[in-house]
Amino acid sequence: MSSIDHLFSKNQQWADKIREQDPDFFEQLSKQQSPEYLWIGCSDSRVPANQLLGLAPGEVFVHRNIANQVVHTDLNCLSVMQYAIEVLKVKHVIVCGHYGCGGVIASMDDEPRGLIDNWLRHLKDVYRFHKDKVDAVTDQNKKFNLMCELNVIEQVANVANSSIVKKAWSNGQELTVHGFVYNLKDGILKDMEVSVDGK
Ligand SMILES: [Zn+2]
Fold this sequence. Notes:
The chain folds into 2 domains: 1-31, no CATH class; 32-191, Carbonic anhydrase (Beta-carbonic Anhydrase, Chain A, 3-Layer(aba) Sandwich), CATH 3.40.1050. It has helices at residues 5-21, 25-31, 49-53, 75-87, 102-107, 116-129, 131-135, 140-160, 163-170; strands at residues 37-42, 60-65, 92-98, 176-183, 188-191. The termini are far apart. The relative contact order is 0.14. The protein is an alpha/beta fold. A 5-stranded mixed β-sheet has the order 2-1-3-4-5. It is built from 9 helices and 5 strands. Zinc ion is lined by residues 42, 44, 67, 98, 101-103. Zinc ion (ZN) binds next to α5. Its EC number is 4.2.1.1. This is Carbonic anhydrase. Its cofactor is Zn(2+). Belongs to the beta-class carbonic anhydrase family. One of its GO terms (biological process) is carbon utilization.
């Protein structure tokens, strides 16, 4: 049986290292959080929000699901958005996809996978909206990459069209929604340049 004991020793080392640099770090952070960013990303273990942004605990509020979906009836995602925007008053919402996303790739075939097929339907909708553009690409990898990008663009639109963001904008709240795609091969984020701020 494999042990998870090493996780506790790793955790201890991590906390010790942070305290070495800033003895009051955890004490201060335990009192409040005031992140400027809400990250809506993929659950993929290779795309950890804080680490790839170089941000410390307390600096980014995070929601992750398979293929970074923003579904208008997903109470989990909507609740995260509401809390981040209305209570924490984040200034930026970042939807971040990544090339090589297993969810996106799986949505492009008709193989039955059980429960997850219902979630992947949302990606099939993205494909349906952009069918001509996607079908015009013959290289399979390029097709998947394009779908990853189009998916991010669609999810940015879903964030921007949510009642939560619309309300924030109508109240004059400063809030920008961005779409990024992360490259697993070099660790670099690409800005899809679809940022919207309600103005
Ligand atoms: Zn993914």
